[in-house]
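name: query_chain
kind: protein
chains: 1
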Amino acid sequence: MSFNVENILDMIRSYGEEDLQSDLASFECPQNIEIEAFIRSKAIDFAKRKLSITYVVSDTSDGEIVGYFTLTHKAIDISGSDLSNTSRKKLGNHSHYEQASDLYSTSAFLLAQFGKNYGVDGGKRITGVELMQCAMDILADIQHRIGGGVVYLDAEDKPELKVFYGEKTNYKLFGERYSDIDNIKYLQYMRFL
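structure:
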């Protein structure tokens, strides 16, 4: 199976905002309502305002939207105490290290949203690993054009997400944060491009 990955801004130009919004409204992700709500009601606005860019992944055989991911960039601080020596060395190539606080400060690519469309074949048309590879391909192109080398994301503290990010997609856990707004603990993962 092959997939087409399109920048949402290009899709607005090609199909028109109204038609695109109609297509995105059918996206379903019952496992994470935030993923569903973002693509349905925020992705176009965030892209037009250049806050983040969403990439829509479709099946080339029929054009069905099978998933999406949203990218942006953000400055982050990573505690050196949470890293292996290898990760510390790699991160040192992409960041400023403050020895007194043992913090690495870097501008990183943020994988802000990531989800499969369960409204198409129950989400089985694309695997999470395939969707992640689509995101990594786009990030590799961006890295080639502007530099950078660190990707990070926040994920809910759930066993299946720990396995997916930690084992299947080669992200390394580097911290956690608690959202007072959502009342949710998020695990923070990173990987190098």
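note: The chain has one domain: 3-192.
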